Amino acid sequence: MHLNSLPRPRPRPRRDPSPDMLKNLSGDGTSITEDQMVQWANNLVAQSGKATQIRNLSDNCLSTGAFLIDLCAAVAPNTVDWEIVTAGASEEDKLSNAKYCISIARKIGACVFLTPEDIVEIKPKMIFTFIGALWTTHLSGGASAAANQRDITWTCLYSATKPHMQMRRDD
């Protein structure tokens, strides 16, 4: 069998915060700037009642993970167990917060590509995509949308009159 005769896999839809998806955040199709991203994140965190703020995506306070956890909590309230969050004083605490932050973001449906080390080491481009993914998740309904997707169950139906099985989506 020749390679040319094999069926080609269908392209999968993009779920990552690609530049095209991030352009959708602006509302007018233009690229989102770092300043716009920081402003959105700061505003959302402030609206949720938290006092943490960042100046830019290279801000040293990002290494503790506290601001990003606050942002996740602002996107999807009641998803953070505050007893797990540390002050981020030691490298171990920073890494623990970063891991927890990523876990929360995934739980609420954000498509995450950065590692905990990217947060602790303050890699601005990776943090940009992370906040963009949270923004996209926020616009799509956050944790409620992710929960709705997970709560969909499938029921296997078998009919004696039909010799095949059917799957029914229970919404």
Sum this structure up briefly:
This protein has seven helices and two strands, in the order αααααααββ. The protein has helices at 19-26, 34-47, 66-75, 91-107, 116-120, 124-139, 142-151; strands at residues 153-158, 165-170. A hairpin with a 6-residue loop joins strand 1 and strand 2 (165-170).
Explain this structure.
The protein has about 170 residues and is mainly alpha-helical. Helices cover about 45% and strands about 5% of the residues. Strands 1-2 form a two-stranded antiparallel ribbon. A hairpin with a 6-residue loop joins strand 1 and strand 2. Helix 2 packs across helix 3, helix 3 runs parallel beside helix 4 and helix 3 packs parallel to helix 6. It is globular, with a radius of gyration of 20 Å. It starts with 18 loop residues before the first helix and ends with a strand. The C terminus is likely disordered.
